[in-house]
Amino acid sequence: MEKETKSIRIAIMGAGTVGGGVYKLLQMRKSDMYQRVGADIEIAKILVKSIPETRKDVDASLLTENFDDIMNDDSIQLVVEVMGGIEPARTFILRCLNSGKSVVSANKDLIAVHGRELLDAAEANKVDFMFEASCAGGIPIIRPLKQCLIANEITEIMGIVNGTTNYILTKMAQEGMEFEEALAKATELGYAEADPTADVEGLDAGRKMAIMGSIGFHSRITFDDVYTEGITHITSKDIKYAKDMDCVIKLLGIARNTDNGVEVRVHPTLISKEHPLASVNDVFNAVFVHGDAVDDTMFYGRGAGEMPTASAVVGDVLEVARNIKGKCLGMFGCTCYRELPIKQIGDIESKYFMRMVVRDCAGVLGNVASILGNNHVSIEKIIQKPAGCDTAEIVAITDVVQEKNFKAAMQTLNDMSFVQEISSMIRVYA
User: Fold this and answer.
1) Which domain holds residue 237?
2) Catalytic residue selected from 45, 208, 250, 351
3) Which GO terms describe its biological process (predicted)?
4) CATH number, domain at 310?
5) What pLDDT sits at residue 384?
């Protein structure tokens, strides 16, 4: 049978690390594309900020600085957005969707805020909008949530979704580094940006949890709904005490669908050394999903980087290309048909790790226990060690408690004359 000669023309917006990886991977698979998709993939245009500054391994004849060169080319059916940021990416994507061009994006910042608007535009124009690479780099998670696990009522999505902070905490745990030293090492190796705020303050992970929670629970969650707390206050002493209690500290994203509403949060968390996430180290990511039918599933791999992220982007490109070929675009729009309430951080329940320095004298431990009890906080484990001249360090893990009660107890303790310092308050996964 004679081979049908048909190519699908695409444009790439952005030629940075991820855009260059997408270009490279498409070139690597070029000879197999027809067999895998049923059509060849032809790159028609690559939008860049400045042509002279573009990476040398990209064909210069494809470059343009003018978005209209993509918009006005009716032969371009699919646009890949790997520019990042909110604008002009949002405007460009909406114009593409409204003109009948499908879009693949890796833009977690944009999707965590404007995801519904983009999905609605795709549905209205009967085109595809896919974003597998927005949450966990090369780890498949969006498609499993939307398709493979759709028969489940998902009650929890949690995991390590930021490689930079996981690398930092790994170095602190394995080599005894303090935060600043570990961050400097991450920056030296290219794992941390020049401005690492989005990573170390939990913002990057928060955006990913908003996206995954929206899909998993079928209810819109935006980045503003996510409580975020970073790792800048974690010390090597916290990590040592966690180890003494058979735990490790990880920056976890946790999304839960409870009877009282949805909770979505990112913060440092103690987890048992027996938990599978405890052994996820360096820049690796892992996501746990709990469904009522499937029970627990875990997705593990490299959550960032040029080629892992390109793998997810190109996977979406080929899926859209198959849909174009099969004339079945627009099959999966927004899946948020519920309107679940978002729980405030004070209403969540958790165990807590706390560390404080107190005067080393009779009755102090009893007073601490009394204040905790008056605020409905009970203790599961406690350690007291000398801390210096006439001082002692109390380290404890509580039973499950409502956050606002724990914070009230900590405020009362902080005002007591026998308390010199409340050094750490870290949630414990339970």
Assistant:
1) 142-302
2) 208
3) methionine biosynthetic process; threonine biosynthetic process
4) 3.40.50.720
5) 86
